Here is the input.
Amino acid sequence: MMVIIIKHIDIEGPGTIGDFLEEKDVPYRIINVFNQEPIPEYLSDISAVILLGGPMNVYEEDKYPFLKKEDAFLKEIFGKGLPVLGFCLGAQLIAKAKGARVKKNPQKEIGWFKLSLDKDVLDDPLFQGFPGEFDVFQWHGDTFEIPDNSVKLAGSELCSNQAFRVGNNVYGLQFHIEVTDVMIQEWIDAYKDEIDSLKGFVDPCKIISDTKFKFENYRMQARQFGSNFLQLINAI
Here is the structure.
């Protein structure tokens, strides 16, 4: 078993999902595409693919050539029937590769927000053990349309499309269930200009206080999510 994790920027790593894989002795390899590390050409040893977030947009392929290579890689992976999981930018890349449109969301979501699972998919394998509504951490300005022949899984007040599933093995999540409290502080520091431009709408002090209050429960949810994803890998 080998899980491939595609990383788009140094400060957006695998976080809690990486911690869980290490704890369960599941080998994984991080591909730093922003450092021109090549995406694997041979798929025989890959058991799953995880795509992380990043500040770039899926339509910036001229500025970030690795996005075009990633699009081709995803389409090849889809044909193999392997489990694929994308967070934020990763989910948008999956949606694009599946032919759906990625566009600006009416409003940026940055911080902690309520997310609701659609009532008819509460038994989805990846969200087993989750309540119908729970807190998630968000940092995005774009959103995806739900690809054809896919199932919408979740939404929020400010962004109606928060998660989808294609078949029984491909998932796109707009939110960051993989984030750690350390990563949140790093993002606040690194993306200060973006936060400053949203003064009055985004309060970094509130994000930090909310993180202290919510994160232990979020960590437990992340462990449940990691367990569900590992079961998905083993089932395919």
Summary: The mean pLDDT is 95.
